[in-house]
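Kindly review this protein for my students:
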Amino acid sequence: MSDSNSSTAKSYLDSAIAQGQSALGSLTGSTGDKTEAAARKDQATSEKEASHTLGKAGPLNFSPSGGVSTDDPNRSEGSWNQTLGSAKESLGGLLGSEAMKKEGERQNAEGKGQEAQGQLSDFGSGVQDRVKGAAGGMVAGITGDREKEEEMRRVHDDAKTKQRSAEADIRKQAEA
């Protein structure tokens, strides 16, 4: 959808073309085809990585395509509740206060749920808005409405940024 070269779909297409070129090079013995296939495969890998790259500053997310999104407030509030809960757990353990320790555990668990709710909200709205942007952009392209097409590209790119940000946080937590 975007004019940038950081499209996941484009990376898959380039990777498939590279595999075909490599097979052709192997059949014909052409080192030129093999070299070109290797270069295209490297390009496809770079495109895929770039399509998933995000910059993050607080609740703001930025993508290479120019997409910008803001995290659902539940994500940062949940993270904050986890931090406070962990601090209460530690302090309760240090002071020997079982009540404070239990309160911290409860707040930490509540924060994890709140953050997960925000992540799922961002993921879902990101997917929904990407579809809306892609479909709207196609319609605008067919009708020749370049202004609307550009608007829908921005909707798509911003939504992709929101979705990728949620995916990155979910993946990071799963690996922890």
